Amino acid sequence: MLDFRTWEHETITKIFKVTLNRPTAENSNYEIVWLKTLEDELVSEGCDQTSLRLSGDILDRLLIARLELDPQTMSDDLDYLPILASLPAKMTVFEYLVGCWKRTNRERGNLSKKNPVNDMQQASALLEKIRDLLISYAGLSLQEPEMFPQPQGREIGPPELISPLLSLSALSSPLSSSSSSAENVLDPTEVEPFLQDLARLGGSDSSWRAVISGFEALISIKSIAVMVTQLPEWIPSHATATTFQKVSY
């Protein structure tokens, strides 16, 4: 069983696939991304370079540092070349955040099944904090998709919700596609929990707008608009005048 600080560092590394340690990145063939800029910032603030670790206190900073990396950028810093070259060239910000969200859920499952850490309450709180952060940035990436560097030639923003929503129907095969691996794509069983997280967090900010925008993008496809109006939930037969708003789409 790990102490919390060790578990925290290892878990954040796995979820975000980032590190403040160059050898860690090199040993993973840069699958784990070295956040060199953030490391330099922390050292300049007085942190000991030999004892830098990932923690819940710097979640915002490490996520922003990762999202600001642009594989299409040229750099004269030789240290950056392997970092930029290893980044998935066509992965959108939303897809990266989805991958992190999925890995967070996996760690939550491991936490309840394996009891890997000596402070379960603190560990659970950290995973909740990470999930809220990821969902918040996912909502922002749908509303303001150009906030961080994005790959060229990819649809970004609300249209990114189309494929996950289409995966719930028989129409998914001919109409949806993705150039990213399944690790960064919502599968049909994950769409509803993800949207629930987005809507839940939207109660305290404007993330709910991303859900509405995604639905608008979805029904802009004529065949999907027709399908939606034919669903039993569109005009439920059991609905009354007082319950119609709650039980229908």
Relevant terms:
mainly alpha; 249 residues
Sheet with the most strands?
Answer: 2 strands, parallel
Q: What amount of the residues lies in strands?
A: under 5%
Described by the principal axes of the CA atoms, the overall outline is: globular
Helix content: 55-70%
The succession of helices and strands, N to C, reads HEHEHHHHHHHHHHH
**Please, what is the average pLDDT?**
84
Count of individual beta strands: 2
Number of helices: 13
| Rounded radius of gyration (Å) | 20 Å
For the termini, the CA-CA separation is: 47 Å
- The residue ranges in which pLDDT falls below 50 over 5 or more consecutive positions are 170-180
The computed structural class is: mainly alpha
Read across the widest sheet, the strand sequence of neighbours is 1-2
Oligomer classification: single chain
